[in-house]
Amino acid sequence: MKILQLCRKFPYPLKDGEAIAVSYLAKAYKKLGHELTLLSFNTIKTYFDTQQLPASFDHYTSIHTVYLDNRVKPIAAFFNLFTADSYFITRFINSEFKNKLKEVLIANDFDIVQLEGINLVPYIPIIREFSTAKVVMRSHNVEFEIWERVAATTSFPLKRWYLKYLVQQFKTYEIAQFDNYDFLLAMSQRDLDYFRQLGLSGAAMVAPIGLDMANYNTSPTATMPPNSISFIGSLDWMPNQDGLKWFLDQVWPAVRLAFPSLSFHIAGRNTPDWVFARAGEGVVVHGEVPDATEFIQQHPISIVPLFSGSGMRVKILECMALGRIVLTTPVGLEGIAATHSENILVGTTADEFCDLLSQCIQQPNEMELLGANAKSFITANYDNLLIGEMILIRLAKIIDSP
Q1: How far is CA 221 from CA 169, 298, 320, in A?
Q2: Cα angle at 168 between 166 and 171, to 5 degrees?
Q3: Per-residue pLDDT band at 223 (split at 50, 70, 90)
Q4: Per-residue pLDDT averaged across 243-266, rounded?
Q5: d(Cα 287, Cα 268) in Å, to the nearest integer?
Q6: Distance, first Cα to last Cα, the chain
């Protein structure tokens, strides 16, 4: 198969869930014998100099990028109020990208064009005009749902009203696109069920994120004293901020009181000032770290306190793949078929988090077994080659269909 992958941001370095999801599936496609081309925006927020790509980033036959300044611009955002268009989408409409897409489509006979996110939908008409390829939407989240949460937790009334208006536009747009896809890949059964409830009737499947397990060699949990816990995640994502603030306010004071020598280490891209301000009293704020895997391995316990969002939490997969003890919420676990007390720990309330962390610290032998089970579980269920093969079997059927 010849596959063109369209991305809303360049999928390197592998420091966020989207980059990991995009890159590891592409690597699986390549290893399974298929030819890939990448056309990606290179946005001002996550700009990467492609001349600095390592030799290991070799899964694309060719790579094309288009620079995009997709920052929120107040004047454009204001005038968007007087249109029916979603500002979340219009920020990604770019004539240079359209021209490059047309050029790439004319020069290649693709079987599949895979869109990595709803922001790339405006380019479907170009694909239909210049290619006979099937259009596959890979939905990383129920996008509008995340912004609903942001709007609901915004305290300034005018801003909250404006965000709710934008979210309703975005929701209407996302639902209206279902018929434009030949196939939809959802990250979790929960997301796919919700899409069906909203009106999706076309071909679709659940295709979770897979990891390249060769990149997750572990150090044994048992060799590490249980005196530190960690959080790592993109801290410009509101669900991560909300969950971290809840943990710092509702859980950490009681845990710190019970275990004065325990430290809590926080890392993440775009760490806001309020997180740095919480340093002290056992809290260490690292900001963005050069190597997420190394950071995770320095701490035997990883927390993922999420109460909103959709899709899958890649950092949970990575922490489990590294044999760490992961403590999360039911929302954090969505899309991951792990089992509480067998290969992961799940709590809902602050008291449950405190009790589970106490067990981790007081029962290191049991936690060693849980960490080993976590790694075995990820190896068996979330290997990128296994998931890539599963997807490609379905895509072959889509190509053969009229």
Answers
A1: 47, 9, 11
A2: 110
A3: very low
A4: 96
A5: 5
A6: 17
Of residues 63, 35, 27, the one with CA closest to residue 48:
63
Write down the residue that tokens 């078929």 correspond to. Answer: 337
The structure tokens 């369209």 sit at: 6
Indicate the Cα dihedral angle 52, 54, 57, 58, nearest 10°.
Answer: 100
Phi and psi at residue 62, in whole multiples of 5°?
-150, 150
Alpha carbon dihedral 143, 148, 150, 152, in 10-degree steps, equals -170
Tell the residue number behind the tokens 């300044």, with chain if given: 69
Token pair for 184: 């939809």
Phi, psi of 53 (to 5 degrees): -65, 135
How open is the CA angle 338-139-237, to the nearest 5 degrees? Answer: 75
Within 8 A by CB and 6+ apart from 152, the residues are 160
The answer to whether the beta carbons of residues 209 and 187 sit under 8 Å apart is yes
- 34-48, 231-245, 272-286: the lowest-pLDDT one: 231-245
Residue 219, pLDDT score: 58
Mean per-residue pLDDT for 211-238? 78
Q: Following DSSP, what letter does each residue of 260-287 receive, concatenated?
A: TT-EEEEE-TT--HHHHTT-BTTEEEEE
Query: pLDDT tens across 277-293, in order?
Result: 999 999 999 999 999 99
| Those residues with Cβ within 8 angstroms of residue 139's Cβ, 6 or more apart along the chain or in another chain | 117, 118, 184, 185, 186, 187, 191, 195, 311
Look up tokens 């990128």; give the residue. Answer: 384
**Tell me, what's the pLDDT at 143?**
75
Q: In this structure, which amino acid lies at residue 70?
A: N
Sheet with 345-346, edge to edge strand ranges: 283-287, 263-267, 228-232, 301-304, 325-328, 345-346
Mind listing the domains of the chain with CATH numbers?
2-210+384-400 (3.40.50.2000), 214-381 (3.40.50.2000)
Instruction: Fill in the amino acid letter for 368.
Output: E
Q: Rounded mean pLDDT of the chain? A: 90
